[in-house]
Amino acid sequence: MRGLRLEASSDTNGLNSFEDALKALDNYKKKDPSKVVVRFKAVGNAPIMKQNFYKITSSNRFQAVIQFLRKELGWQAGEPLFTYINLSFSPAPDDTVANLFKACGTDGHLIVNYSTTQAWG
Amino acid sequence: MSNYGTTRQPGGGAPAKDKTTDYHTALFRRLSWEGTVPIEIRVDPKELPANSDRGLECYYIQAPRVSYLPLLLPEIRRFLMDVVFDEAAASGLKEEDWWFETEEGTITKWHWPIGLIFDNHTISLSVRSSAPVASSQAQPLRLILHLASPPTEKLMLQPSQEACKQAFMGQLKEADFIRWGSTKRVTGLRKLEQDGIWEGIREHNFDDYWRVASKVTPSATLPPPAPAPGASAHARPPSTDAPSTFDRDGAYSVRSIPVRVYLPDGPILQEFAPPLLEDGSPNTLNSFLSTHLPLLFPPRPPAPPPSRSKPNPQPPSVPQLAYVMIQGVVSPSEAEMGWLGVCMAGADGWLSICVGINR
Fold first, then answer.
1. Residue B101: strand pairing partners
2. Which of the listed residues B125, B156, B187 is the one where a domain comes to its end?
3. Which end of chain B has fewer CB atoms at under 10 Å, N or C?
4. B65 in helix, strand or coil?
């Protein structure tokens, strides 16, 4: 029915603006398929893994990284595991790998330190 | 009014201009701190313990924006135990199994500030529903309280105050890192101060909070004067400029403002936000958002060159597809990111920008 709608040239907030906005939102919802290189670094008595570099999908939340690490270490859910970025802070569990890498990446990867005790709490 | 919003002066008295900055800084910090949102909490009727007083299971709170849901639990529990629950039936309840979700089924996060939960939810509703935008009367955030089977993966945290405090301190440090590339300002706080800043939030005490926060929040200095249009940086006389009073700890000296942008129903964006652009002018909401979300905030093309018939041409208008909400207030696009970062940020140091859609 577009042909029946009068287009006011000065109207920049017409019906199609809302649709354009919705389309934009959908566009921004698309998950980034790219991967980020995460480098796991053991701290203190934490065991060093055979493999320390992993490619992790950008859109993953940090919570998924923690779960992945637990699996690689073979640790149960109850065993204490503390994780930090750049030996500096513990991210919010819903921070995405993409966002953390953008803000704190060094030398093309994201450094995740892990330990059995709370170091920088 | 509390003095904790002041700029730090190198020495001597503060000139009149800085006293105005102090006043506005303190004013906006106080306004952000005192902001509250209405919450309506209803226990899931299917989970009410036996012999509960039905019909009374709804609790209303006007909650501080800067607070967190776990901090509200003791008050809610007291009400439910006093008024609603039968003591015997309720004795088996474990607060660590309690969790909230919105009426639309969104699980609310323990580590998100209440103001953020509210704004994000309000905007999300306004985008989804075909009803016209709500009137000026704020609709309460309607939460359903569940008493068992918490979806631990989605909640990500225990509802304990200790877990909430840890998450808060983590965010404070992350903000510090974003600003300066190190967390030494936060980790340099004495244990008493670290506990004190959280106590300020728990007790909702502005002075207690800012007593410590002022040590880790950049001071709200004015931006250095931007170079005149057309003048190159080299042409500026080196000795008479702002650098002599340049505040290395000021809002305009940070590497990046800790900011997250919340789109309705996600995603959450985090982008580098320098306080000054390459040309030395302050980074504004408009420049930040048109750079990173150009589909929603189209960049305004430059004005056409002046002509005889139009000696003062304006740049063409662009569709206003979206708006920005910070601490519940729709923000003007020319607001400076540096200023927002130290005056309108949340208690955890993060500037939360909620994007809504215009109808």
1. B107, B144
2. B156
3. N
4. coil
| B28 in a structural domain | no
Strand residue runs (E) in chain A: 35-42, 53-57, 82-85, 109-115
Distance between CA A114 and CA A118 in Å, rounded? Answer: 9
Which of A22, A23, A29 faces B267 most closely, judged by CB atoms? A29
Partners of residue B301 in chain A, C-beta under 8 Å: none
Which fold is adopted by the domain A35-115?
Answer: Ubiquitin-like (UB roll) (3.10.20)
Give the three-class secondary structure for A31: coil
Is the Cβ pair B183, A120 closer than 8 Å? yes
Sheet holding A53-57, edge to edge: A53-57, A35-42, A109-115, A82-85
Query: Distance of CA B220 to CAs A102, B23, B241, B258, Å?
Result: 26, 11, 19, 15
> Do residues B52 and B143 share a domain?
yes
Enumerate the domain spans of chain A: 35-115
What span, in angstroms and rounded, lies between the C-alpha atoms of B25 and B76?
A: 34
The whole model's pTM is what?
A: 0.87
Distance CA B339, CA B16 (A): 19
What CATH number is attached to the domain comprising B286?
3.10.20.90
Q: Are strands B259-262 and B351-357 parallel, antiparallel or unpaired?
A: parallel
C-beta atoms of A121 and B109 within 8 A: no
Domain end call among B112, B127, B156: B156
Domain coverage including residue B339: 250-300+318-359
Closest listed residue to residue B72, CA positions, set B145, B156, B178: B145
List, for residues A29-48, the tens digit of each pLDDT value: 998 889 999 999 999 889 99
B187 and B147 assigned to the same domain: no
Q: Are residues B42 and B147 in the same domain?
A: yes
**Residue B358 in contact with partner chain A when CB distance is under 8 A:** yes
The predicted-structure confidence for B320-342, as pLDDT tens digits, reads as follows 899 999 999 999 999 999 999 99
Residue B119 · residue B328 · CB < 8 Å: yes
Residue of A nearest to B297 (CA): A21
Establish if B9 belongs to a structural domain.
no
State whether B168 and B132 are in the same domain: no
Whole-angstrom distance, CA of residue B260 vs CA of residue B175: 11
Contact B37, B250 (CB under 8 A): no
Mean pLDDT, range A44-71, rounded to an integer: 93
Report pLDDT for B247: 74
Tell whether B225 is covered by a domain: no
CA atoms of B219 and B19, how far apart (whole Å): 13
Please, what is the average pLDDT of chain A?
A: 85
Q: What is the CATH number of the domain that holds B48?
A: 3.10.20.620
